[in-house]
Design brief:
This protein is an alpha+beta fold. About 25% of the residues lie in helices and about 25% in strands. The protein has seven helices and 14 strands. It has a six-stranded mixed beta sheet. The structure holds one DNA strand of 15 nucleotides.
Amino acid sequence: MLKLASWNVNSLKVRLDQVLDWLESTQIDILALQETKLSDENFPLQAFIDRHYHVVYSGQKTYNGVAIISRLPIAEIVTDIPDLEDPQRRIIAVNIGDIRLINLYVPNGSEVGSDKYDYKLMWFEKVRNFIRQQLSQYSKIAVVGDFNIAPEDRDVHSPVEWEGCVLVSPKEREAFLSLLSLGLKDSFRLFHQEEKAFSWWDYRAAAFRRNRGLRIDLILLSDALAAQCISSNIDALPRKSERPSDHVPVWVALNLYTTAEFRFKHPS
DNA sequence: ATGGTGGTCTTACCA
């Protein structure tokens, strides 16, 4: 069994100890991070190396930034979207074992109709083209990250309050469905789930206490990987720690490596 | 109660 997770940490500098603790307590094998908010020269590489992880990252100062932490070796790293000159560090794609993992920090979009909203839709379309190409090349693909899109009304605490707003607007949801139509499944909906399950809550207005959240952190799986998915989960516990991220980690269990195989490949 | 919080090489901008 292999555990694959995604977490928007909203500054890895602030959240490093939480990430290390969470990796230790959950025994996650692969973790995709978003909003590291660190330039590459400031990435806390040694902390992960000391704990025997492989690490790749694509960061910038102050904003954005993505990274992948892995128990298994990482190869075939891509940090730029074809046909898009973009200084914003929002994507990192890698091979880990026979999985192609694509880690996304989708633009927030600010407000419907704004320049940032247009950038979000344009960026998403370019990424969709990239993923379409990747699907022709690899069968076991996971597309994970902070999508900044709540796919359906049941992913929103109050669809009425949020109607037409950024993160749920029809154009964003249409773009998301168009991505799924390439041959990806929202792993969370492969299984029975509790209602009102969210992955992000605004820091303001006691949104977490009142469970006024959205499910915008997702793990999408190609059919070949979906067939090996045992569970898809949201771990809301880290939101209760001191100085939490506004997002919590999401993770899937994949029936990929038996414990014996994993120990053979990675003797401790 | 009609507002808020939190991160960043901050005093503005992003989420």
